């Protein structure tokens, strides 16, 4: 069995991925902007708001959305303009 000493042929594997990309999933993660909770797959009742730049989306989970709605409905009515 011949010794391959001095041969560096197998030093670099050209088939190896050079700048291997991180495992970034294309699945968009929906996260509540209020509490930071991630949306479970199949969970319903989330509200998605498109921001000024259409790339940015603001999401609210049902809990926070209920809280926001509750806050909105109990506005102090000291501003009677009529
Ligand atoms: Zn939330």
Show the helix and strand layout.
Blueprint: E1 47-50, E2 57-60, H1 62-73
Antiparallel strand pairs: 1-2
The structure holds zinc ion.
Zinc ion binds at residues 32, 34-35, 37, 61, 63-64.
End-to-end separation in angstroms reads: 101 Å
> Rg from C-alpha positions?
27 Å
User: What is the element string, with H for helices and E for strands?
Assistant: EEH
Structural class: little secondary structure
Extended strand count: 2
How would you characterize the largest beta sheet? 2 strands, antiparallel
How are strands sequenced across the largest beta sheet? 1-2
The helix content is 10-25%
Low-pLDDT runs of 5+ residues are none
Shape designation: rod-shaped
- Strand % is 5-15%
Alpha plus pi helix count: 1
Small molecules bound: zinc ion
Mean pLDDT: 78
Could you explain how this protein is built, in words?
With 82 residues, this protein is low in regular secondary structure. It is built from one helix and two strands; from the N terminus they run ββα. The chain has one helix spanning 62-73; strands at residues 47-50, 57-60. Strands 1-2 form a two-stranded antiparallel ribbon. A hairpin with a 6-residue loop joins strand 1 and strand 2. The protein is rod-shaped, with a radius of gyration of 27 Å. 4% of the residues are buried. The mean pLDDT is 78.
């Amino acid at each position: 069995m011949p010794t391959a000493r001095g041969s560096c042929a197998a030093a670099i594997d050209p088939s190896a991925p050079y700048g291997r990309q991180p495992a970034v999933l294309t699945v968009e993660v929906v996260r509540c902007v209020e509490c930071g909770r991630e949306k479970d797959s199949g969970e319903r009742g989330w509200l998605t708001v498109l921001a000024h730049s259409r790339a940015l989306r603001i999401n609210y989970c049902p809990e926070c959305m209920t809280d926001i709605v509750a806050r909105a409905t109990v506005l102090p009515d000291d501003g009677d303009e009529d």
